[in-house]
Write a structure and sequence with these properties.
The strands form two sheets. A four-stranded parallel sheet has the order 3-2-1-4, covered by helices on one side. Strands 5-6-7 form a three-stranded antiparallel sheet, with helices on one face. It has one domain: NAD(P)-binding Rossmann-like Domain (Rossmann fold, 3-Layer(aba) Sandwich). It is globular, with a radius of gyration of 17 Å. Strand 5 and strand 6 form a beta hairpin. The chain is built from eight helices and seven strands, in the order ααβαβαβαβββααβα. It is of the alpha/beta class.
Length: about 220
């Protein structure tokens, strides 16, 4: 069954991580979790103390009946819908309330910081890839140095802001894509940051591609 399920991605050498901890299950976290589950990550840990609210429905796959549920429970349900065999652990609490012995068990897990707080994630492994948005402007970062230069960094972490589905889904996609396509190839001492205004995303992609832009001089 699994061989058939992933037959078309095996030839691409897509290698989803075995274990991922996702801190924050809002717009970015839900998409990152779903993309990783679809790609074949067998174990995902979800951490979030919040409940689903009506405004979450404009940028996630949460259903109207999820409103009022803990986000980790609603996302757990969505993950099982797409991958019934996936292993999911849920912690409906703040990340800093997780007991140290449990966090220590996640030493080999990749951690994705998808919180709606602008502060370093304390007590966890450094997140290898991150992103945030402010309206239509998104920031994507590989090897973010949040704990070292957070106050001076130009990195904009996800926060409560006017939003719609595309920024959250794109950042979740960026995170999952990086983890599934050899993040280990990046120089861990180097931080890469890109800022994109989504109003110009199509133009940026077309001009940066190897294709042809028709109708231009």
């Amino acid at each position: 069954m699994l061989d058939q399920l992933y037959a078309r991605q095996h030839v691409l050498n897509v290698t989803p991580p075995e274990q991922v901890v996702i801190v924050g299950c809002g717009g970015v976290g839900t998409w990152a979790a779903l993309f990783l589950a679809l790609a074949g990550t067998p174990k995902i840990v979800l951490i979030d103390s919040d409940v689903v609210e009506i405004h979450n429905l404009n940028r996630t796959l949460f259903r109207p009946y999820h409103v009022g549920m803990k986000k980790v429970d609603a996302l757990h349900e969505l993950l099982l819908d797409v991958r019934p065999t996936i292993s999911v652990e849920t912690y409906p609490m703040r990340s800093d309330a997780i007991p140290a012995p449990i966090r220590n068990d996640w030493a080999s897990h990749i951690v994705l910081d998808c919180r709606d707080e602008i502060s370093p994630l304390v007590g966890y492994a450094e997140t290898p890839v991150n992103g945030g948005y402010d309206g239509r402007c998104i920031t994507l970062s590989v090897n973010p140095r949040l704990n070292d230069i957070f106050a001076e960094s130009q990195f904009v972490q996800y926060r409560i802001t006017p939003s719609y589905v595309v920024p959250a889904a794109l950042i979740g996609l960026f995170m999952a894509n990086d983890l599934c396509n050899g993040h280990h190839a990046h120089d861990p001492s180097q931080e890469w940051v890109i800022n994109v205004d989504l109003a110009h995303l199509n133009e940026i992609l077309l001009r940066g591609s190897n294709g042809v832009m028709y109708g231009t001089e």
